[in-house]
Amino acid sequence: MTTQAVRSAGSTPRAGAAGSAGATGMRRRRRLFGPESTRYLSATTLMWILACAYGFPLVWFILSSFKPAGDLFSYPLTLFPAHWTTTGYTQAWNSFNFYQFFGNTLIVAISTTVVTVVVSCCTGYALAKYQNRWLKVFLVCILATTMLPTEVMLAPSFVVVRDLGLYNSLLGIIVPSILTATGVLMFRGFFLTVPDELIEAARIDGAKELGIFFRIMVPISRPIMLTLAIFSFQWRWNDYIWPLLVLNNPDQFTLQIGIQSIVGAQNVNWSVLLGASVISIVPLVLIYLVFQKYVMNVNINAGLKD
Amino acid sequence: MSVTATAARSSAQGEEAPASSPGRRRRPRYNRYILAPLVLISVNVVMFGLFFVWPALIGFGYSFTNYTGVGDPQFVGIANYQQLLADPSFYQALLRTFVFTLIVVPTSFVFSLLIANLMVSRYARGKVVARIIFFIPWLISPIVTGVIWRWIFGENFGLVNFVIESLGGHPVQWQSNADLSLAVVMFASTWGGTAFSMLLFIAAIKNVPVSYYEAASLDGAGPWRTFRDITLPSIAPTSFIVILLTTLGAMKEYALFVSLNNGGPGTTNNLLVQYIYQTGFQRGQIGYASAASFVLMIILMAVALVQLAVNRKAERR
Questions:
Q1: Do residues A180 and A234 lie in contact, with contact meaning Cβ atoms separated by under 8 Å?
Q2: Is B68 in contact with B285 (CB distance < 8 Å)?
Q3: How far apart are CA A164 and CA A184, in angstroms?
């Protein structure tokens, strides 16, 4: 329901723009030379200077990754490789069990994301649509978890995971990451905007409580699910300290641990490191480019970040 | 506010219900409303108990023991805390953490707010592409961010020193000077942290009623006045959350340091989390590390409470 409202609100100005398409050319010309032209010029210039500053480190990094190992340190440095090569990438992929790290990370990120989205959706709905003293207490508990990040309880969390028998297994990374305050609060915020009348109407029609949730509420919360899925995938893909503690067997390492092991070596093999790092970025960038609007339209301002 | 409103409404309904219908019919309904939410929150309740309550309790307990991860913990009273407060490297880690936080939080606040304003400005051209450029650093993990900046600021091979030398300067000790090394981490942290705060700011600025800006422009207010007197006060709650989140994030930074300079040169740039990790896991003193974790938790809570108090005061004004 909310999504429809958002969509229609978004389409109104577009329709208006299409209507006055003939006048746009005129207006643009007047903008470029009119009294406001300095503001266009200064805002656009400032934005692109910043964009270049933010984009440059990555561009330099990616261009360097295509240089042959011998050219990486040869002065004078050049922006573009003299000889383009992908040896860094093939070496990275074939050494260090890299494809295995990649697969492990993929398993962890996907399974955690699926479970987190389902569980957060259920909890967020319960916290938004039922009033009950215990639910209120639990909401406060959820808020408290944002104050207790993993880093604050490294040692005891490790002992708990070990005692549960999850040490040295991918489950040891997946299970403790299921509860996220951000996810729960995102869904709670969304369900608070869904009118209670919808539920009342379904109740009058004789629907069961859980039936209302699964048949009506889950389908309409799809945009939030996608947003949380992207966030969760990013968190788990980029996680470092927790997998480092829980995993001890190189067969189970995730990408970030693998990359850090290259950095931590006595002589850093930059050619392999550059290739490995770029490969590790690619999946997230692809996901972001496809689902951009679900990330950029986030309208939540409570307890984010995990 | 909406929560309390709905809560009040439902409790009013609850009082009416027994009057209109006999107790027999109320009973199953009551049960159903307890059971359904309980089923829905059950998984997270278990998770909360297992991974927050349990570690918090045993962590507090371990901080009074000499537990090493194996064998039985022995109670040592407050010895861990005494040892911690007498350890100069703990104070150094604490000081470095504060310096890092005090510089990174304002810098990243200014940049993300500036970029968010440009992203919603109707005067900037090419926002669609620029937005992707600004956002990509968020997708990159702290480890890889560290690698990227290490590559640029390498002392013997980095681009920055190459440019400085080509311009006739002397190569700068980006790695072997402790303060410059910390500065590079600050650049990297700002670069990586801007996108997320920017996202929150964009959402907040878009929610400011357009009529405010129209009124301001009718009154002839310039862009700076408009920003200072309309945008900034209207997005105050978001600013609060951004500052809180970036502070907490900076206080517990670890991965970025590990890959950029590994807390070096030497141990000069070891932050608190690295200190905890090294004492707890590399030297196997779980009890001592728990005490250090507990101190970190108290600091984080104090930071959050101070910011909350400041925010309340600012709102009342």
A1: no
A2: yes
A3: 25
Nearest of B213, B198, B233 to residue A47 by alpha carbon: B198
Task: Confirm or reject contact between A304 and chain B (CB < 8 A).
Answer: yes
DSSP-based three-state secondary structure for A131? coil
CA B254/CA B250 separation, integer angstroms: 9
Contact criterion met (CB < 8 Å) for A40 and B59: no
Take residue B190 and report the two structure tokens written for it: 């700002």
Provide the whole-model pTM.
Answer: 0.83
| pLDDT of A126 strictly over 80 | yes
Of B114, B157, B207, which has the smallest distance from its Cβ to A73's Cβ? B157
How many interchain CB pairs under 8 A, A with B?
282
Quick check: helix, strand or coil at residue B65? strand
Q: List, as ranges, residues 231-290 from A with C-beta within 8 Å of B.
A: 234, 237-238, 240-241, 245, 256, 259-260, 263-264, 270, 273-274, 277, 280-281, 284-285, 288-289
Nearest to A298 among B125, B146, B199 (CB): B199
Q: A130–B280: do the CB atoms touch at under 8 Å?
A: no
| pLDDT per position as a tens digit, A63-117 | 988 988 777 777 777 778 777 888 888 888 887 788 889 999 999 999 999 999 9
CA distances from A262 to A104, A276, B278 (A): 18, 9, 20
Q: CA angle, A10 as apex, B240 and A27 as ends, to 5°?
A: 100
CB A153 within 8 A of CB B59: yes
**ipTM rounded to 2 decimals:** 0.82
Contact B290 A147 (CB under 8 A): no
Does the structure show a pLDDT above 70 at A240?
A: yes
Q: Which of A123, A145, A154, A164 best tests the B interface by mutation, with the highest count of B CBs <10 A? A: A154
Question: What DSSP string runs through A46-106?
Answer: HHHHHHHHHHHHHHHHHHHHTS-GGGTTPSSP-SS-SS---HHHHHHHHSTTHHHHHHHHH
Q: Which residue of A has its CA nearest to B292?
A: A152
DSSP B264: -
Query: Which of A47, A155, A264 lies nearest to residue B293, judging by beta carbons?
Result: A155
Which residue on chain A is closest to B191 by alpha carbon? A54
CA distance B86 to B67: 20
In contact, A122 and B41? CB cutoff 8 Å: yes
Averaged confidence pLDDT in chain B: 83
pLDDT digit string, tens, across residues A9-28: 333 343 334 444 444 555 55
The C-alpha atoms of residue B263 and residue B185 are separated, in whole angstroms, by 10
The type of residue at A101 is F
* B297–A148 C-beta distance less than 8 A: yes
Q: Describe chain B by its helix, strand, coil percentages, rounded to 5.
A: 75, 0, 20
